[in-house]
Specification:
Length: 158
């Protein structure tokens, strides 16, 4: 009977470890119209319709000897993004603001839905990624803005 610790002579030659291959799964692209509150892990291909900077804050202490390395401006922008099923507001933070320019087409990976004042916002944290891609061929459906829908949390008594 073979156990997990059993090795063959091919595994022990040249002091090499057995190789394991990581199989990556293909991304499943979702449409903006399919987004629901409280969900995460979304991959979307969208166009940026507009970008508005809502916060551009300098570091608190500007003296040269006490500024920690990497302390940069805190920037937040609200971007209206969309595809052929609808639009939603995207909250871009720091370096993401530079990528989210009006008119560009981006692929957003591992995005999550944040709730802000009862409405949905799309965001990408440190585990996600934004990539600028070639211009898309679809036309954005601007009359279905999911960020304008207000949600309310209702507790159901059992």
């Amino acid at each position: 009977m073979a156990t997990v610790n059993d090795t063959t002579s091919a595994d022990t030659d040249n002091n090499q470890q057995p190789t394991t291959t990581v199989v990556k799964r293909k991304p499943v692209f979702v449409k903006v119209g399919d987004l629901k509150p409280g969900t995460n892990g979304h991959t979307l291909a969208v166009k940026v319709l507009s970008s508005t900077t809502v916060l551009d804050k300098k570091p608190r202490n500007t003296s040269s000897f006490s500024t920690r390395p990497g302390a940069a401006n805190t920037r937040i922008a609200e971007c209206l993004i969309g595809d052929e099923t609808g639009t939603i507001l995207f909250t871009a933070r720091n370096d993401q603001v530079d990528l989210m320019k009006a008119g560009t087409t981006v692929i957003i990976r591992n995005a999550k839905i944040d709730m802000f004042k009862g409405s949905m916002r799309l965001a990408v944290d440190k585990w996600g990624r934004i990539e600028v891609t070639e211009p898309a061929s679809f036309t954005v459906k601007e009359d279905n803005n999911l960020s304008l829908v207000e949600y309310e949390l209702v507790n159901v008594a059992e």
